[in-house]
TrEMBL record:
Residues 146-277 form the Endo-beta-1,6-galactanase-like domain. The keyword Coiled coil does not apply. PANTHER family: ENDO-BETA-1,6-GALACTANASE, ENDO-BETA-1,6-GALACTANASE-LIKE DOMAIN-CONTAINING PROTEIN. Residues 411-501 form the Glycosyl hydrolase family 30 beta sandwich domain. Transmembrane segments: none annotated. This is O-glycosyl hydrolase. It comes from Sphingobacterium detergens. One of its GO terms (molecular function) is hydrolase activity, hydrolyzing O-glycosyl compounds. Keywords: Hydrolase.
Length: 506
């Protein structure tokens, strides 16, 4: 008999004897004993739940510099044609909304391109970008021309109205006549750029795109020749790249082409793989000497995708190669799987993804996939209901907990946590002004008491902004948190919530 069998038999015998003894007792006594046991169990559970999380924010333990937060300016035509497009711009990049500082555009593959003078035409002739969408002039445009016009309007208005400082553009596919299979828009069967005939041509196309926008008063701060270069499965526009060939293209073709157009300050992004882990493998195998921003997306890893999962990567890992001090950006992420969820569960998925990529993987920027959609879908921060009204998802609120309070050039600082109780905590500071912000995510179904200590600095009161399952508005001010006499900030983090605590170094 092993030890487990002995214990089991002993308990069984004791249980039988106790049962016989209890049979002769009054039912009232039995009930009382049961009530006592239940009460005791509840007390133990309450004590376990009440264990305080302790966090120490270390001012002098600096991590990566933050470059900012953004969203993609599409889907382009529905965005441009929306009667609420002006409000949507403000809700995303304006001061009353998310205050995003990055706008991601698209190097469309359908622009007219004069190969002799290298001019790319990004604006349909004879049509003003403020044309009414129900006018004959607009209705006469082709689908491609509407997309060209729409993107120019979005980027130009965001720049003019909100001085959006960082505009980037990613390329889904080269013009089809430059691909190995010019009859397919997808990357299926490893369909990509024809390196034997079109490397120089494609590089000039990208440079011509950036130059054309510059002529419109819009600086393309960074350009990416790829979007998910490993995607050889989907039907949408894509282009296959081998990692070594992408590195060669960037060094031998794209950088020289940009320089020839006087665009020496235009940065190059690579490689924007669908998953953070895939980007690690892809980038580690290529020449990165002329890549300025190392980028990946925030979707599930390929092994999870094969297993049927979709959506936000909830456990991304640090890259294993040396980045050489170059910034790492998340240039796309959303919940692209499952039923539509505008509530807190959908928001928490984004919160976990953002925390782990920023705090665990040292990403410097985070760009959500779609700013808006003309219907309800998890891939957008702002959706449109069937009656035409806008719906703000809890993911929109979560994005604001970062983008409204953590500005470009802030630095992430270390947070030492004991008894985490499921809380995800990160902190950021402005070295110039002394402002700082902590983002605290609680994915659990119970509230958690939290004590915050400051190391290396003293702070005054903290403004506590919260999003919960039942909160209205967006990142509402839940109150102020003052330090105790010994400098500890004590508060309770609600179940299933995201909180931002903002203060200033004294």
């Amino acid at each position: 008999m092993n030890r487990n069998q002995f214990v089991f038999k002993s308990i069984s015998c004791f249980g039988l004897m106790a049962s016989l003894w209890l049979t002769g007792c009054q039912k009232q006594v039995l009930s009382t004993n049961e009530d006592d046991a239940v009460n005791r169990l509840n007390q133990l559970n309450a004590q376990a739940a009440a264990v305080t999380t302790n966090a120490v924010v270390e001012w002098n333990q600096e991590r990566q510099k933050i470059d900012g937060f953004g969203a993609f300016g599409g889907r382009i035509v529905p965005f441009f044609e929306s009667p609420k497009r002006d409000s949507i711009l403000d809700y995303l990049w304006g001061n009353s909304g998310l205050k995003l500082n990055i706008l991601r555009g698209k190097v469309l593959h359908t622009y007219p391109f004069n190969q002799q003078n290298r001019v790319v035409t990004i604006k349909p002739a004879g049509v003003d970008i403020d044309v009414a969408v129900n006018s004959p002039a607009y209705q006469a445009l082709s689908a491609d021309a509407r997309e060209h016009l729409g993107q120019l309007w979005i980027l130009k208005k965001a720049k003019e109205r909100f001085q959006v400082p960082v505009i980037i553009a990613s390329t889904w596919t080269p013009p089809l006549y430059m691909k190995t299979n010019p009859n397919s828009i997808s990357g299926k069967w490893f369909n990509g750029l024809n390196l034997n005939t079109s490397s120089t041509l494609f590089a000039r196309y990208l440079a011509g795109f950036a130059k054309a926008y510059q002529n419109e008063g819009i600086t393309i701060n960074a350009i990416s020749p790829t979007n998910e270069p490993e995607n050889v499965f989907s039907d949408w526009d894509a282009s296959y790249w081998a990692s070594n060939k992408l590195g060669e293209f960037v060094t031998n073709n794209l950088r020289p082409a940009l320089n020839e157009e006087g665009l020496q300050s235009t940065k190059i992004i690579a490689s924007e793989n669908a998953a953070w882990g895939t980007a690690n493998t892809f980038l580690s195998g290529m020449d990165r000497s002329n890549v300025d921003i190392l980028a990946g997306h925030g979707y599930v890893e390929i092994t999870e995708l094969i297993g049927g999962k979709r959506g936000f990567n909830q456990s991304p890992s640090k890259w294993t190669f040396s980045t050489g001090g170059k910034p790492m950006w998340v240039t796309e992420a959303s919940d692209d799987g499952g039923n539509y969820d505008a509530g807190i569960e959908g928001g928490l998925k984004l919160a976990v993804n953002m925390h782990k990529l920023l705090a665990d993987c040292d990403a410097s920027a985070y760009v959500f996939w779609l700013g808006m959609l003309a219907f309800q879908n998890n891939e957008a921060l702002i959706c449109t209901r069937s009656d035409g009204s806008l719906e703000f998802t809890k993911a929109y609120d979560v994005m604001g907990h970062y983008s409204r309070f953590i500005k470009a050039n802030y630095k992430r600082i270390n947070v030492a946590v004991q008894n985490a109780n499921g809380l995800l905590i990160s902190a950021y500071k402005d070295p110039q002004t002394g402002k700082f912000a902590m983002v605290v995510t609680n994915t659990g179904s119970s509230s958690v008491p939290l004590d915050i200590n400051l190391s290396g600095f003293v702070g005054g009161q903290l403004s506590n902004y919260q999003t919960t399952a039942t909160s209205t508005g967006h990142w509402g001010l839940a109150g102020m948190v003052a330090p105790t006499a010994n400098g500890v900030y004590s508060l309770t983090i609600p179940a299933k919530s995201v909180s931002t605590l903002e203060g200033t170094k004294q």
